[in-house]
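Teaching assistant here, posting this on the class forum so everyone can see the example we discussed in section. The complex has two components, and the goal was to see what a joint structure prediction looks like when all of them are supplied at once.
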Amino acid sequence: KAGVTQTPRYLIKTRGQQVTLSCSPISGHRSVSWYQQTPGQGLQFLFEYFSETQRNKGNFPGRFSGRQFSNSRSEMNVSTLELGDSALYLCASSLAQTGGTSGGFGTQYFGPGTRLTVL
Amino acid sequence: SQKIEQNSEALNIQEGKTATLTCNYTNYSPAYLQWYRQDPGRGPVFLLLIRENEKEKRKERLKVTFDTTLKQSLFHITASQPADSATYLCALADSTLTFGKGTMLLVSP
């Protein structure tokens, strides 16, 4: 089975621009989560989508948004980029069927990430 | 506030020894806890999951313990090898999945 794929792998943008990142989950996985990883803050949860619905959301500003398509592929969008948005953005897919406190996240299968640099 | 703490200092050990990594947390009631391995420039890779009602889980040379009273998980790698050198992350699941910042393990020959 093919793993999680993310495109593009590297991206350079300037402040104020917007960016869209793409994630294709493992076949059969309906849950897709996005994370931001920086040296200072570590790996931080952005949001999770399941069957085209945002099921969980982390503590990030509204400039960060996402969506999931009927084939479970997901996109993440960041508008009005700031220097602090420079990070490795990781997507993870999961077989998890249930959400929230019942342990719905399950095992996360991560993609290779998109390295975003904001100048 | 909620906090997950992993030792920020790298753990240096010799090949063949047992590595023990610690994950402490406060103000969480996690349904389960996971451990991941991350190599430089790559996404984390899942290793083990342990539920709140389990005390210990093993997989080959790996062992995880989970003490909800102490609010602590210990991750052990026995007979460590240089190939085990990586950053190890713990993650707690309640309404979201929250990761610690990880501990770098360096195994020297």
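For the discussion questions: The interface with chain A takes residues 31-32, 34, 36, 42-46, 49, 51, 89, 91, 93-102 of chain B (CB under 8 Å). Residues 95 and 103 of chain B are 24 Å apart (CA to CA). Think about how each of these relates to the inputs above.
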